[in-house]
């Protein structure tokens, strides 16, 4: 959903602007940037959406008529070209696009750090991750509905076929989101992000054994330090708990399958609308378990305890802000992906994780052992190496296909 200027970025993983485009047939070249065509979800390795959602969704060839000479879109036609002699001189941002790209990177990091810090602070006095996950999605959905109401963007029509295609993506998004929050509520933010650094390992495994696509040996070797680093950090992490560890691992698996399903899903609507519909579906999916698992405790003492500790105004404002930051940082992350090469984005993702881990240690004063610190550094370095090698391989494939 548009925000922060073309912020065009959402839910903070959320907000997605123009990431998806319709691909009518193999003979037609996709107008998407290389990063978006890859359908990868980079977050320390690969978003999502989550940890940032950025799939490339396309309709199966059988669902739409092939039209080699004509391409339908849900966007209004571009304004007619200006008469000769009246062309406007390029503005500052058009003349220096690096300024805009730098702004997107800054806002991506800033919003993500704020979200993680505020999210953890809420869990310190309100340890109900299922309910908080629902609030994250609810605020994002309200944001999307308001944007539709004012026509920014215009709401794309939906039907049963598209819902069927988007549901698996939304289901994996919901599961990954909830389990991430359970992990964040249970262990230190820095440790949760260290575990989630294993996401590229699950992506590679799914690519090799689920999709049947060969993963180069160099990629597998680059994952060795990631596994080693996470193992080292886990053995001596002071906040370690099996609940936090297992939920972070489930989150990794969920986001991996989300990436797989998003490549199979297909839609001709723009990414902002796609993300809005996925958020709505994910919200519906998350409400029942929240009511079943945490509902009784919330009604009995959870809400009253939180209000007694911080007051009604702060409690409500914290929940609203954390949901808004969640939506916006995802949207910004997606827009950043569209503006840069996959290698640049991969490096940016790794640096973002370093920022989050570093700021969380400073803000919350988390004590870490020397082994945990070394293990975290090794894991992040492994993710950086994996991201670099993967991006180079993708660039070589595109060069050969061109």
From TrEMBL:
Keyword Transmembrane included in the entry's annotation: yes
GO biological process per UniProt: monocarboxylic acid transport; transmembrane transport
Molecular function per GO: antiporter activity; carboxylic acid transmembrane transporter activity; organophosphate ester transmembrane transporter activity
Topology in the lipid bilayer: Multi-pass membrane protein
SUPFAM superfamilies according to UniProt: Multidrug resistance efflux transporter EmrE
UniProt xrefs under InterPro entries: EmrE-like, Sugar_P_trans_dom, Tpt_PEP_transl, TPT_transporter
TM spans (from-to): 98-118, 130-150, 165-189, 201-228, 240-260, 272-292, 312-329, 350-366, 372-389
GO cellular component: chloroplast membrane; Golgi apparatus
PANTHER family: SOLUTE CARRIER FAMILY 35
Protein's name in the database: Sugar phosphate transporter domain-containing protein
UniProt source species: Triticum aestivum
Gene: LOC542868
